[in-house]
Design a protein that fits this description.
DNA polymerase, domain 1; hpI Integrase, Chain A
Amino acid sequence: MSTPRIDGALMADKYLQMRRSMGYKLDQQGQLLMEFITYFLRSGDAHLTSRQVLEWATLPAGANPVWWYARLGAVRPFAQYLQAFDPLTQVPDPSLLLDGSHRVLPYIFSDDELARVLQATDRLITEFRARTYRTYISLVAVTGMRRSEATHLDCSDIDWGQGILTIREAKFHKSRQLPLHPSTVAALAEYSMIRDAKYPHPKDPAVFLSARGTRLIPANASQVFARLAREADVTRPGFHHQPHLHDLRHTYAVKTLQGWYRAGADVGPLLPLLWTYLGHQNPAATYWYLSGTPELMTLVSDRLGSYLQEES
């Protein structure tokens, strides 16, 4: 029994409506997607394939590869969305076209992958170094902090009574306060006891200290994280960009959005809270972090489906 043909134009309209309800304008991307839909319908094929997308994306011949990559990027998220309704839909790999000058596709960690990376810290030489990186990585993961914000934390920046973390003079010379979950406060308190016992008179007032008693260096922390990810077998075969410490910030943003959708929350009014927590000046900066993962797209699609049923 063959799978029925999906109405590509209708699905594209629903997809754009869904993404725009999340705050994306998608002016140029939406126009490109509809141009592809016209190309797809003319082909007469029943299902979207990577070959079709690649053929259309590389038009016109001889154009700048950056333009080809932009065309591919306009269709690929739609293919991910469409695949939830048509299993025969193929999602083109982003590595089919390389431009080298645009956004690197972030890596979104699963809970299991992050757990494996944290387990790998136990193999670091010296128990104190292992505890430092386990706590440091965990804090970045559960708060979405920038790596430099975590390394620049001083002990005086933690309000133990209120469970609030103060990030001072961050990007754009702005400061902000982050309320922490009680479990995060408890983990920081445990690490602080270990740190103070190891270095009762440290060379630096930093929260996270190196094995020499000095403040962690962001670049070194990134190198250690990359090695831990490889040891935990968290890799991207065929990709130049491998899982990176900064990807935890992307992961936090996406998982926060997924949590709101699962809880049935009205996401729109909550987005200002997310970009304030992340330390952004405007929503556009936060949208940069919201990758269209299959799980997120499914949650948003389900929400949109419920909304359309109520409206009809």
